Amino acid sequence: GRPHLPPSGSKHTPKGPFMNFGSFSVENRDRVLCIDEYGVPLSAQWDPKGFHFATQISQFGLQHYSSTKEKRTVTLVENGRAFLEEKWTLKRRAGAELSVTHSQQLGRDVLKFCTEVPKSGLTAIDGIIRLVDDHRNGEVNAHITFSASGPMVISLRVQLSNEHWHMLHYDSTAKKAVQLRGDSIHYRLLAPVGEWRTVVRNLQVDVQRAIISVRRKPSGKKPKEKIGLLKVVRVESLGLRGCGQLANFSLTSSAHLEMAVYAADWLVNNQDERGGWPVGVTRTLKPNLVLNPGWYSAMAQGQGISLLVRVYHATKKKVYLQTAHRAVAPYSIPSAEGGVQAKFLNRLVWYEEYPTTPSSFVLNGFIYALIGLYDVAAFDGEKSGAAKLYKEGLHSLKAMASLYDTGSGTLYDLRHTLAIVEPNRARWDYHVAHINLMATMATIDEDPIFVSLRDRWLRYLKGHISSHN
Q1: For the whole prediction, is pTM greater than 0.70?
Q2: What would you report as the CA-atom Rg of the chain, rounded to the nearest whole angstrom?
Q3: Confidence class of residue 257 from pLDDT cuts 50, 70 and 90?
Q4: CA–CA distances in Å: residue 14 to residues 18, 282, 305, 310, 445
Q5: pLDDT the model gives residue 139
Q6: pLDDT at position 124
Q7: DSSP per-residue letters across 86-118
Q8: pLDDT at position 217
Q9: Looking at residue 37, what is its pLDDT?
Q10: Spatial separation of the C-alpha atoms in residues 114 and 41, rounded to whole Å
Q11: Measured distance CA(148)–CA(140) in Å, rounded
C-alpha cells in the first residue's frame, strides 16, 4: 500500500475519523470468514473454523465509523403503516397468515405474520413473499426490524453483477455461521422470542463471503483462484417463514454507523472481568514464542478503546465510555501475569501486541495501544490513569522509535535484542503502517522525532539508503 498522511494542519481527535481506516475493507479481507449473526467479522486468521478477534472487530468498527459522513440513500419497502396487500403473496400450503396489528412496544402499526415452522435446509422462498424489485448499481444494505415468536427465516432473492441469482436466508435454525448450498446462502440469525431487533446486512459482502467460504481450504487458507468483486444489482423479493412481526424493511446504500455500533456492542458484551478481550486461539510467532488461548493484545485493547470512545461520542450512551475505561486495566498488568505491559531493558514501559516471553516489542501494535490511551484520556483529563500510562508509553516511544530504523526500512519488532535471532524486518506494508503511525503521532505530539522518522521512512520507500562509514 501507499502511505496515507493526515492533511496538513489536521490533528488526531478521539471524536473524528480514525487515521486512514475509512479506506479499509475489513469484511473483504481473506482472513475474514464472514460477518456473523452479531454483525461482526468472524476471523479465520489462525483458526479455519472461525473465532472472534477483538483487533479485527475493532478495525471493522473504526473503518465504518470513519466513513459515517458518507451520504446514503434509503428506500423504504415496508413498515406496516402503508400496507399494500397486492404487494404480498401468501403460500397457503405453508399455512401463511398476514395482517396489520398494533405494537404497544413500538407505539405503531406493524405487520403480523405466521407460517409453518421453518426447517433448516430451506432452499427457496416459501410462506410469505413481498415483491421488492429494487435495481441497484452499488452497495446495498438490508435493514430489517422484526420480533420473532419462534423459529424464523428471513429470505432475500438477489441478482449479482455476473447475472447469477442467489437466495440469502437469515435463519434462526441454522447450525453454522454461514453455509452455501447450491444457490442458497444461509446465515445464522439471532431472533430472541418477543424482542424487537434490527438486523442490518450488507448483501454484497454476505454473498461474497459465502462463495469464498466454500472454496476455502480446510487449513483456512484462501482459494487459489481469484474471485472478483461481486455486486448485488437487484433485490427481487423478501420472504418470511415462521411467526413474528415486521416493523421495517428498507434498503440503503450504506450503513456505517450501524456497523460501528455492532462492533462496539460486541466489545461491551465480551469484555472480561479484567477489562480485556482475550484471544481464544493459540498464536505461534516462532517455535519458542507461543501464546496459549486467553492472551490479551495491547493492540486490541487500544483499537477497542478508540472505537468505544467514538461510538460513545456518536450515541452518548455511557456504557461505551465505561467499557473503554475498563479496557485500560490490562495496560498496568505485566505480561508475565497475563497483562500486556513489558519493560525494555527493565526500564522503558511497553504495551505488547503479543505479550510473549521473552518480550517481542512490536512497533505498530504498541502505537495503536498508545493512541487508544490518548483517546480515552481526552475524556478523562490529564490526571487519569489512562493519561499516566499514555505519558509513560510516549516517553518510551520517543526513546525507542529510532531503534526500528534499519537505514533502508524498518523492523517489525525488537525480538533480536533479547534472543539470539536475526532481526525481523518489516514487510513494505508494515513499513507503510509505521509511516502512517508516525504521521499520526506528529499530529498529537510536537516532538520533532515523529516528523523526522516519518520523512526519513518515506524516503526509504523511494529507494533511499542511509550513508555508511
Answers
A1: yes
A2: 24
A3: very high
A4: 8, 32, 10, 6, 14
A5: 82
A6: 46
A7: GGEEE-GGGT-EEEEEEETTTTEEEEEEE-SPP
A8: 58
A9: 97
A10: 32
A11: 24
Backbone angles phi, psi at 282, to 5 degrees: -75, 140
Cell numbers 496515507 correspond to what residue?
A: 4
**136-169 pLDDT per residue, tens:** 877 899 999 999 999 999 999 999 988 899 999 9
pLDDT digits (tens, 9 = 90+) for 324-338: 999 999 999 999 999
Task: Return the amino acid letter for 383.
Answer: K
Q: Write the CB contacts of 407 (distance below 8 Å, at least 6 apart in sequence).
A: 465, 466
Rounded CA-CA distance 424/421 in Å is 9
Of 189, 192, 191, 188, the closest CA to residue 176 belongs to 188
Furthest-apart CA atoms within the chain: distance in Å: 87
Do 253 and 140 touch, CB atoms closer than 8 A?
yes
3-state secondary structure 200-267: EEEHHHHHHHHHHHHHCCCCCCCCCCCCCCCCEEEEEEEEEEEEEEEEEEEEECCCHHHHHHHHHHHH
CA 258, distance to chain mean position in Å, is: 12
Distance CA 151, CA 192 (A): 9
Taking the C-alpha atoms of residue 283 and residue 81, their distance in angstroms, rounded to an integer, is 52
Express the helix, strand and coil content of the chain in percent, nearest 5 each: 35, 25, 40
